[in-house]
Amino acid sequence: MLTGSLAAAFYGTPRATQDIDLVIEAQAGPLERLVENLEVAGLYVDRGAATEALDTAGQFNAIDPTSGWKADLIIRKAREFSKTEFQRRRGEELFGIEVGLATLEDLIIAKLEWSQLGDSELQRQDIRNLLELAGDSVDETYMKRWIGALGLQEAWERVTGDA
């Protein structure tokens, strides 16, 4: 599932980035095949980091050594929000490739988490831009449910200016 800055660009909030954030659902065997396929494609992948990411529901990278582009491969967490977010992804065509794209609401919630983890004004500005562009099309009931369940009220208030 495509998320992060490139997903935000799809929704109309472009910003310069040199990485691709992808949430993947993985198990040991299929992950090993994925790593092999990435290596065959000429990308650098640290196999130990991939295995550790699977064990910890963390992330690992695939890097194109010629361009410096990096894919952050994020193992989908077992928690309820992550399962729901992954199930809600929608098929979209980007650059002629069919991808699973995080919904606008789930992208905003994920960016709220990232903003809280790293105290990131950049993430907060992305969220403000997404909300402005989306207008009334955001499912506020869905967002309020997960903002509450994930303890993101303070992060939400920092974004919306209600703090």
What structural keywords apply?
alpha+beta; two-stranded antiparallel ribbon; 8 helices; 19% strand; globular
Helices, by number, come to 8
Give the topology string: H per helix, E per strand: EHEHEHEEHEEHHHH
Radius of gyration: 16 Å
In terms of DSSP E residues, the strand content is 15-25%
What is the helical fraction, as a range of percent? 40-55%
Task: Walk me through the structure.
With about 160 residues, the chain is α+β, with helices and mostly antiparallel strands. The chain is built from 8 helices and 7 strands. It has a 5-stranded mixed β-sheet with strand order 1-2-5-4-3.
Provide a concise account of the structure shown.
The protein contains 8 helices and 7 strands. With 163 residues, it is of the alpha+beta class.
